[in-house]
From TrEMBL:
It comes from Novosphingobium beihaiensis. InterPro entries: Split_barrel_FMN-bd, TR_PAI2-type. This is FMN-binding negative transcriptional regulator.
Amino acid sequence: MHPNALFRTENRALMEALIEEAGFGMIFAATPDGPRVAHVPLLWTRDGALQFHLARGNALTRHIGGMTALAVVNGPDAYVSPRWYADETQVPTWNYVSVEMEGRVRRMDDDGLHGLLEALSARNEARLAHGTPWTMDKTPPATLARLKSAIVGFELEVQAWRPTFKLSQNKSADERERLALGLEAEGSRAMAQLMRELAQ
């Protein structure tokens, strides 16, 4: 989390929307083998928990159940050039959106894992523009059972939120618009849009 309070938000709906939109993040934990991270698809349960699964062979799998872990979801980010400011004394920076969530992790049973996999595939298949959505019943039961035996489902109950929405809130409205125009011209449309909508 960025130390500047201007870059924080208490808007829970905004943070949840980022998790839903990204659908992917990182899980960090300090294990007896040292610090470890896993990159995982995430499912927000809408009741305060993140669900994810890990390969049985992942360095976190044997330790993370019952531990406190950190989940991180990143949104858009972009380099901000000093050349876009009216004030020529500015220096380069980076604007970004990120939400850190800390909480206790519990291991799921087989039914929980199955539900997680169904929900993840349904959500992501629904995002595709063409074709018939894939469903788990299209996989032969024996194949599905074999594949599921290679992964473990987990749920992180979020106990602390640490968001950073660094969108040049420490600059004037005129400067922010100049930066947004510069970012748009370089193809960073998502960051420019967030700066206009959220950095008021």
